[in-house]
Design brief:
- The complex is a heterodimer of chains A (120) and B (234).
- Chain A has a single domain, classed as Fumarate reductase/succinate dehydrogenase, transmembrane subunit (3 helical TM bundles of succinate and fumarate reductases), CATH 1.20.1300.10.
- Chain A is 83% helix and 0% strand.
- Chain A contains five helices and no strands.
- Chain A is mainly α.
- In chain A, α1 packs across α3 and α3 packs antiparallel against α5.
- Chain A is elongated.
- By secondary structure, chain B is α+β, with helices and mostly antiparallel strands.
- In chain B, α3 packs parallel to α6 and α6 packs across α9.
- Chain B starts with a strand and ends with a helix.
- Classes of the chains: A mainly alpha (120), B alpha+beta (234).
């Protein structure tokens, strides 16, 4: 058993499941957006689309999925390449710093996303 | 003439590894890579590699031949040589002891972690623990592993985290005991695997399946472990 405190769900199984489920939600959302964009959009139709509550809920679901997906994915990348084994203590410093940066970025995007969806 | 290029490194005398080139006359025969090494070693006795049974059973001569891991003794030149060139390197990702010999300690440490032995604390029956032919069949494709390390050393996840990720070879053996009807430690075994590294560092790229000289499928075994973890979780 390897301990991990900076991973998304602390458990490999939970991270794996969240990664799959969020991936499916993101795929569905991007298909939904693509279907709407492909026929051409203008301000009025776009505003009308996002005025519907279910679109806002679906969008927030996609944003939260992206947040979880990015956290798990970037965590996996950082723990592969930036480790004490490969780079000494620099690896630990770099990894934790970058993880923190990613988390802050994700947090900002989530809050900003909520503001965009319900603020206008 | 076949151009053979061999990785040479002696940590006691060399600053860094180098490639040594040889011209090798196959005399039109489709030799195994190990035969080529043996004949070259007869010329230059300092070439160092592991070998034992020379028939793909012991798993000693796992090497990287033209970029692909395999057992030198059962890899014919016709299968690996392209453009009349054969490049032989040690298994990637493990520390080199000398030339083509790698230090397998990290590989064995991961193997040890999965407790690769039958655990059953119930009183032993008078004769032996019986197993139905169906239950026995579940071990096919698992028990044949010879621990040559070709799979684990072809796995990027194992290259980056050999101390945390158990690797395809270890996980195949882990599933061999998880799937065994006579083993009663299933829950304890699974509990030790549910972290983000031991099993879940596998991203399913199947390099392990691609190189296994015994034609085994560690990715499939890892999928089974994942499903077992999933079905015991709430």
């Amino acid at each position: 058993m390897v301990t991990a405190v900076t991973s998304f769900g602390r458990s490999g199984l939970s991270d794996w499941l969240v990664q799959r489920v969020s991936g499916v939600i993101l795929l569905a959302y991007f298909i939904f957006i693509a279907c709407n964009v492909i026929n051409g959009v203008d301000y009025v139709s776009w505003k009308a689309l996002y005025a519907q509550t279910w679109v806002k809920v679906f969008s927030l679901m996609a944003i939260l999925s992206l947040a979880a997906h990015a956290w798990i994915g970037m965590w996996a990348v950082f723990t592969d390449y930036l480790t004490e084994r490969l780079m000494g203590s620099t690896g630990n410093f770099l990894r934790v710093t970058l993880q923190l940066l990613v988390l802050v970025t994700i947090f900002i995007y989530v809050v900003w996303g909520v503001q965009i969806l319900w603020g206008y | 003439m076949l151009k053979v290029s061999i990785y040479r490194y002696n940590p006691e005398t060399d600053d860094k590894p180098r490639m040594q080139d040889f011209d090798f006359d196959t005399q039109g025969k489709d030799l195994m890579v190990l035969d080529v090494l043996e004949q070259l070693k007869a010329e230059d006795t300092t070439i160092t590699y592991r070998r034992s049974c020379r028939e793909g059973v012991c798993g000693s001569d796992g090497l990287n031949m033209n970029g692909k891991n395999g057992l030198a003794c059962i890899t014919p030149l016709s299968e690996t040589v392209k453009g009349n060139k054969l490049v032989i390197r040690p298994l990637p990702g493990l520390p080199v002891v000398r030339d083509l010999v790698v230090d397998m300690s990290m590989f064995y440490a991961q193997y040890e972690k999965v407790q690769p032995y039958l655990q059953n604390n119930t009183p032993a029956p008078a004769i032996e623990r019986l197993q139905s032919p169906e239950d026995r069949a579940k071990l096919d494709g698992l028990y044949e592993c010879i621990l040559c390390a070709c799979c684990s050393t072809s796995c990027p996840s194992f290259w980056w985290n050999p101390d945390r990720f158990i690797g395809p070879a270890g996980l195949l053996q882990s599933y061999r005991f998880l799937a065994d009807s006579r083993d009663t430690a299933t829950d304890e075994r699974l509990a030790k695997l549910d972290d983000p590294f031991s099993v879940f560092r596998c991203h399913g790229i199947q390099n392990c399946v691609n190189v296994c000289p015994k034609g085994l499928n560690p990715t499939k075994a890892i999928g089974h472990i994942r499903n077992m973890l999933l079905s015991r979780a709430t």
